[in-house]
Amino acid sequence: MSKQGGKGAASKGKKPAKAGGDDKREDALQAVIIADYFQDRFRPFTLDKPRCLLPLVNVPVIEYTLEFLALNGVQEVFIYCGTHSEDIEQYIQESIRWNPSSIICPFSSLEFIRVSDATSVGDFLRDLDKRSLISGDFILVHGDCVANIQLDPVLAKHRARREANGDACMTVVLRSVGEEPHRAAKARGITPVFVVDDTDSRCLQYDEIHPLIKDRRLMLDQSVFKHESFSVRSDLIDCGIDICTPDVLALWSESFDYELPRKNFLHGVLKDWELNGKLIYTEIVEDAYAARASNLQMYDCISKDILERWVLPFAPDSNLMHDQSYRKVKNNSYVESGVVVERGSKVLQSAVGKYTSVRAGSSISGSVIGRRCVIGRNVNIKDSYIFDGTVIEDGAVIVHSILAGDVKVGANAHIPEGSLISYNVEIDRDVRLPTKPPARISAKTDYGEPVENDASLVGPNGKGAAYEVVDDDSDSDSEEEEDGDPAQLQNNLIYSLEGLNISTLSVSTLASSDDYDSDEDDEHAGYLHAGDGQRERLSSFTSDDSSKPDAFHGDAVNGLVDALRGDDNEDFDSAKLEFMGLRLANNASDSSMRRAIAVAFTRRAAEMLSPEHGGLEPSKAAERVLRGKNGAAKFIRDVGVGGDGVKPQVEFALALQKGLVSVKGLESGRAGTLLAALLQQLYSLDVLEEDGILAWWADKRAAEGETMTKVKEKCKVLVDWLEEADEEDSDEDEDEDSD
Amino acid sequence: MPPPQASYAPSLDKLIKSLKSQPYETSIEALIFLLKRRQVKGDDCAVATAHILLQVVARSKWHDVDQLLGRVQSVGSRLARAAPHEPVIGNIVRRVLGLIRDEASEERNNADDLGSESGSDIQSLAPTNPPPQRPAPTPVLMRSSTAAPGGLQVSKSMFNILSAATSADTPMTGASTPLSQAQPASVHALRTEVIDGIEEIMDEIQSADDQIASFADVQIHPGEYVLAYQPTKTVERFLIKAATKRRFTVFIASIDPIDPGTGEKPYAALRKKLNSHGVTTVNLASNGLMAYISRVNKVIFGAKVIYQNGGLLVDSGACIAAQAAREFLKPVIVLGAVYKFCPEDPSDEAVIGELGNPSSFVSYAGGPEVEALDIENTVTDYIPPSLVEVYITNLGPQTRHHLASILADHYKVEDIGYSLHDGEV
User: Taking a contact as any Cβ pair under 8 Å apart, which residues of chain A between 345 and 374 contact chain B?
Assistant: First the structure.
C-alpha cells in the first residue's frame, strides 16, 4: 500500500478545535478512529476511494462509525488516516454534519492526524502516545465499524474496574454470534479465540486460527489454569471497539514492533501479563449489533444485516445522511425519492438510491443499488452491490457481485458470482465473465494509470483488465502466515477454500467451555477436543518451531551479538527488551528462542577466539561473554533456559553445543573446549545445574554425528568433575537424593 | 478526581438542559438525530418538539407572522421527517401553528377594537387560557380561506391589517420613529404570547396523564377484571388511580417474560404499587391472553397516536387483544391525551406497522436457520376504529363520533392540509 508522501509526522490536517471544547476536557469522552488498515482486501475498489468511504448500503462506511460515536456521546474525535487521507479529510470538510466548525456537529472537536511514515496500526498508536492528546479513557475504533451498542454501561463497568485496580487498562467489546453464525457473520478467514475468565470476564489469552494453518490447535497458557473457571470462545465477533486508558498507549510505545492491535498487541500483552501486570477485560454483548466491514465477506454480511434491520437504528429508512430520503416500500425494500420502478419489474429486499430507474421486466433481489443507476429491461440482479451511476443494459444478469460506480454493463452480459468490478469499467454486450476464479476487473493499475483493455475479458468495446492482487511483502499485509495467507480468503467476496492448499476442509470451532485438566498434559498445555467425536483442534502460534524461523532467528541472533559486542559497561536490559519484542512480533516458540540465544552467545564467544578479536583463550572468552555484561546471565537463565527442571537446561546445553558446531572456521577441538568453558561458567553462575549438565551428557542427541561427539568429548573433564562433586555432595548430605 | 460522568450517551434530558446554552439550530439537529437514532421516542417526542419550537419562536429572527409560520413549518417538517413513525410531532407542530394564527388574529382584533389603547394593554388583554379550554376562534375570514389554495395568503393579508393597526397605536408608545418601532413592538408582543401558548401546551402534555387518570374511577368498577396490554405510563397511572378507589383485578399482558434490563418480571413496579392498594395483579404472556379474555370485563390500551378516523397506533400485539375482546364483546377503552389526536388518516406504512429489530424475537446467533427466514418484527400495531368502544382523553371520555369536534377545536384547517412530510421550505 502506498505510503503518505509528506515529510515528518506533523499533523498537517489538524484543525482548530471548536471553542468550548477545552473547558469540558476533563470529562469529555474521546475516541480515536483508525481509518487506514494497511491491507488491500478491498482492492481494486480502494484504488479510487479509501475503504472507509466505500458505500455500505449507499452510505460511506465511516458515517456509521461516526454516528456510532455520536450515539454514545463522544465529544472529541481523532482520526488517523493513511492512504487517501486527503479524500477522507475532504469528505469530512464537505459534510454538513461532521465538519467540526459546523454548529450541528455533535463533536466538540474532530482532528485528523497524519503519520507519514506509519506502516501499521501500531505506528499510529505509538504516535498518539507521543502527542499526549488523550486525557482519560478513550474509545478506540476502526473506521469500518458498524455498531449500535450502547457503550454507557460498558464504560461504567470499565471505570469501576479501573478504580478498583489501576492495572485494568482495557476493555475489549465483543459480540457473541453463536457457533454457526448467521450468514458470514464472522470473518471466516481468521477466527479469533478468546480465553475469558467466567467470573470477572478478564481476558486471559488471545489467539487466532484460520483454515490455512496445518495444525489447528490452541495451546493454552499454563497460567490460565490458575483461574477457577474460564471459557474458550471462538463464537465471538471482534468488532474492534476497545475502551482504553492512556496506559494502553504506553504499552504500545513500550513494544515498538507491535503492528496489529489484536494479533500482536492483545496476544502479546496477555502473554506477558506477568511482566507488565496489565489486565485486559472483555465485554461480551449479546443483544446489540457490532461488526467491522473488514473484508468483502463482512461487507456483504453487514449490508444484508442492515437491510434486514438487525442494526437499527441504522436502517436505510432512518435516513441518517442529510440528503437521504429512503422510504420503506413493500417487499421489504427501501426506495429513495425519484426512483422509477416500472411496472412488471420486481424489487425485493433491496435498497435503491435516488433517481435510479428500473425498466420493465427486471428483477432485483437482496441487492443495494446506488443513485442515478440505469437498469434496463429484463435485467436480473441478485445479492449484488452496485454503486452510484452504473448503467446496466437490457437482459444482463448479475449474481452476487460488486459493481463500483459508473460501470457499464452491456446487454445480455453475464456477471457470475463473486465478480468484483471496479470504477469506470465497461463490460461489452454478450460478454460472459469467467466463474472460476471470479473476475476482478479494474480500469486502473496500482499506480493509478489506465490499464490496457483486455478484449478477451471485457469484450471488444469494453474497458478494463483483470486486476491481480499483488502479493509482495512491501504491501505490508501483515496478516500473512507461513502456512498460507489468510488474506487470500478475505479479499474475495465469496468465502471459498477452493483452490487453496489446505490440509483439511473443516474449519474448526470450539465446542464449549469445558474445564480442562492441566495434569493430563505433560507440557502444561491443554489440547482441546470437541465432545462430539469429531476432532477439532485449534491452532497454536506458540508451539511450533517453524513459525517464521528464519526471520526471527536471524534478527534475534544479530541483535544479541551486537549487544554482546557493544560497550562493556552497557546494561543488557535493552537488548533483552528488544529480543522479547522480536519474539512477540514473530510468535517465536520457546525452543526457537533458546536456539537463538545459544547461537548468539556461542557466536560471540567463538569470535573472541579468533585472532582479530584478541584471540582469547576459550575459558577467558567464555567468561567475557557471560560475565562481561550485567544481566546477561540472568537473561540466559530467564529466557534462554526459561523454566524450572532439568529439561530446559538440557535443551539449552544442546543448543549451545549445536551452535558451536555450526560456527564456521572453528575446529571441533577448540569448539569443545569452548563449550566446556561455557558450561562451567554457566554452572558457576547458577544458570545450569549439575543435574542439567549431567542429563545433557547422557542425552542421545548430544552425540549425534561425528562433530557433535567430538565437541562433546571435550566436556568430559567437566562432567567428571561434576560427578565427583556430586558424589561428595551426596556423601556430605545423605538426605538429599541425587540421581 | 472529579466524579466521573454517569452517562455519555445523549438524551432528551441533556438536550433540554443545553437548550439555552447552544444555538437553537444545534438543538434542532441534535433532536433530529436523537429521533433518527430512536433515542427519543413515544410521548417524549411531543415534549421535545414543544421545547424546540419554543426555542425557534423565542430565538430565531422573524419580523412578521408569515416568517414565523414559515420557520415553524420548516423546522416542524424537518422533525417530522426525521421520525415519520411518530405522528405526535406533527400534532404539536400543528398546535403551535394554530396558536400563532390565533394570537396573530387576536392581536389584530384587539388592535382593531382597541386601536387607541397602548401596547401593554393589548398584551394584558390577550387570553392566557390554554387553547383546549378556549372555544375555537373561527373567524369567517379563516374559514373561507380553506377553499382558497394558499392558506398563507390569508395570513399575509391578516398581517397587513395587523401592521397597519399597530402602526396606528405607535404614537402612544412614545417612540421617536413610528414606522421602525411599530414592527418590533408587535413582534415582541406576539413572541411573548406564542411562548406563553407553547408553555401551556407543554403543561398540557405534562398534566394529561393525571387528567386522564381522574376519569379512572368512573370507568373501572369494583370487582372487575381489567386486561391491560403492555401498559404505557398513561395506563399505569390510570390503573393506580383507580386502585385507590376500587378493588379489582388487573391482567397485565406482555411479550417479554423477563425484563432484559433489570432481570425482573415486567412491570414489577406497577404490580407492587397496585398490590399495595389491594388490587390483585396477574401477569400473562401475550400469547396466553385469549384464554382469559372471556373472564375479562374490559381491555385498556394506551394509544401512541389516534387518527382522525378513530383508528390508533399501539404497541405490537395489542391488535390481537383488541380483536379477541371484540369477539367476546368486551369493551375496549383507549387512553389518549388530546395532543395525540392526529388530524390525518393513517398512512399505509402506519397500518402495516413500523418494523423493529428482529433480534427481539430471533437471536442473531441462531445460525443458518436465521438466514433462511425473513423476519419482520412490527413494533406498532394499528387498531381499526371499529374495535374501540370509548376514548378517554384529558378532556373526558369521548366516542368515535365526537373525535372530529376535538380535532376541529385543536387544529386550524390550514394546518391540517399542510403536509409535514413534503419538501422543506
Answer: 349
pLDDT grade for A735, boundaries at 50, 70 and 90? very low
Residue numbers in A near B367 (CB within 8 A):
178-182
Contacts of B359 in chain A (CB under 8 A): 287, 289, 310
DSSP-assigned letter for residue A3:
P
Q: Do A310 and B359 touch (CB under 8 A)?
A: yes
pLDDT score of B333 more than 90 = yes
Minimal C-alpha gap between B36 and chain A (Å)? 6
Inter-chain touch A182–B365, beta carbons under 8 Å: yes
Residue B82: what are its φ and ψ, rounded to 5°? Answer: -65, -30
How confident is the prediction for chain B on average, in pLDDT? 77
Q: Does A439 touch chain B (CB under 8 A)?
A: no
How far is Cα A673 from Cα A714, in angstroms, rounded to an integer? 6
Q: Domain limits of chain A? A: 325-466, 549-732
pLDDT at A88: 87
Cβ contact, residue pair A332, B363, below 8 Å: no
| Chain A residue with minimum CA distance to B377 | A309
Enumerate the domain spans of chain B: 12-208, 214-407
* Contact in structure between A72 and A152 (CB atoms under 8 Å): yes
Under an 8 A CB cutoff, do B367 and A155 touch? no
**Which residues of A fall within a CB distance of 8 Å from B358?**
308-310
For residue B157, is pLDDT > 80? no
Cβ pair A30, A112 in contact under 8 A: no
What CATH code would you report for A549-732? 1.25.40.180
Asked: is B214-407 a CATH 3.40.50.10470 domain? The reply is yes
pLDDT in tens, B29-76: 889 989 988 888 888 899 999 999 999 998 888 888 888 888 998 999
Position A548 confidence tier, pLDDT thresholds 50, 70, 90: very low
The per-residue pLDDT for range A671-700, each reduced to its tens digit, is: 778 888 888 888 887 777 778 788 888 877
Express each pLDDT in A323-365 by its tens digit: 888 888 888 889 998 899 998 899 998 999 999 999 999 999 9
Residue B60: what pLDDT?
85
If pLDDT is split at 50, 70 and 90, which confidence band does A107 have? confident
Chains A–B, number of C-beta pairs less than 8 Å apart: 109
Residue A475 has pLDDT above 60, yes or no: no
ipTM for the assembly:
0.77
The confidence score (pLDDT) of residue B299 equals 92
CB atoms A309 and B358 under 8 Å: yes
Q: Does domain A325-466 have CATH number 3.80.10.10?
A: no
Residue A239 parent element (H or E)? strand A236-244
Q: Which residues of B touch A (CB under 8 A)?
A: 2, 4-10, 22-23, 25-26, 29-30, 33, 36-39, 81-82, 84, 260, 349, 355-359, 363-368, 370-371, 374-377
Residues 6+ apart with CB under 8 A from B127: B106, B134
Dihedral sign for Cα B252, B253, B258, B259, please. Answer: negative
Q: Which three cell numbers stand for residue B339?
A: 395532543
Residues of B in contact with A73 (CB under 8 A): 7-10
**Count of Cβ atoms closer than 10 Å to residue B255 Cβ:** 15
DSSP per-residue string spanning B240-299: HHHHHH---EEEEEES-SS-TTTSSPTTHHHHHHHHHTT-EEEEEEGGGHHHHHTT-SEE
